[in-house]
Description:
Elements: H1 12-41
Amino acid sequence: MLWSDPENEPPQELRDMQAMLRRLSVFLATAMVLAMIVIGLR
Length: 42
């Protein structure tokens, strides 16, 4: 990107959705790890 390029900032709704999806993916990854541990302990 050049210094003369215009700002390419996504709209607020898109940023909120990206943050929500990031939190959801972290939650799903944690749940998967916990499920694997529980299945492994049986």
